[in-house]
Amino acid sequence: MESQNVEPVEEVISYIESNLSEKLDLSQAAAGVHCSKYHLHRMFSNTVGITIHDYIQRRQLTEAAKLLICSEKFILEIALMAGFESRQAFTDRFRAMYKKPPAKYREQGSF
Questions:
Q1: How many domains does the chain divide into?
Q2: Do both 24 and 63 map to the same domain?
Q3: Are 16 and 42 found together in one domain?
Q4: What is the dihedral of CA 46, 28, 63, 52, to 10 degrees?
Q5: Per-residue pLDDT at 5 exceeds 80
Q6: Residues spanned by the domain of 32
Q7: What is the Cα 83 distance to its own chain's centre?
Q8: What pLDDT, in 10s, does the model give residues 18-36?
Q9: What does the pLDDT look like over 32-79, one tens digit per residue?
Q10: 3-class secondary structure for 49-104?
Q11: 29, 32, 79, 97: which sits with the fewest CB atoms below 10 Å from its CB?
């Protein structure tokens, strides 16, 4: 990992963490840290090992999983808070990551 890449990557991770409830994409993340999206994409992928899009989605799903266990919010509300436009889109991505649908995950009760 090149040391010159660490600071901008840390900065974009901090930006993403502060804006997880927003519908974020590469362009917004790059604008948030005042960097070219192409340069940021390359730096982030090389440093972290996944794309910014994948990182954002994984973090949003992790926060959603936490809400499923630690809150009584409706699944649709959690899906919208996680930046998804529908319950179905959320369920599909959640199932891909956690190997079970959100309702089943909530039933099992462990984060």
A1: 2
A2: no
A3: yes
A4: -20
A5: no
A6: 3-56
A7: 9
A8: 988 777 888 888 888 888 9
A9: 888 899 999 999 999 999 999 999 999 999 999 999 999 999 999 999
A10: CCCHHHHHHHHHHHHHHHHHHHCCCCHHHHHHHCCCCCHHHHHHHHHHHHCCCHHH
A11: 97
Q: Are residues 69 and 51 in the same domain?
A: no
Same domain membership, residue 94 and residue 65: yes
What is the spatial distance between Cα 101 and Cα 92, in angstroms, rounded to a whole number? Answer: 8
Same domain, 8 and 48: yes
Distance CA 65, CA 94 (A): 8
Q: What is the pTM of this model?
A: 0.83
Q: pLDDT category, 3, cuts 50, 70, 90?
A: low
Q: Are residues 48 and 70 in the same domain?
A: no
Q: Which sign, positive or negative, has the C-alpha torsion 76, 80, 85, 90?
A: negative
Task: Determine the pLDDT at residue 105.
Answer: 96
Q: Which tokens sit at 1? A: 């990992």
Give the CATH number of the domain where residue 13 resides. 1.10.10.60
The tokens for 7 are 């600071």
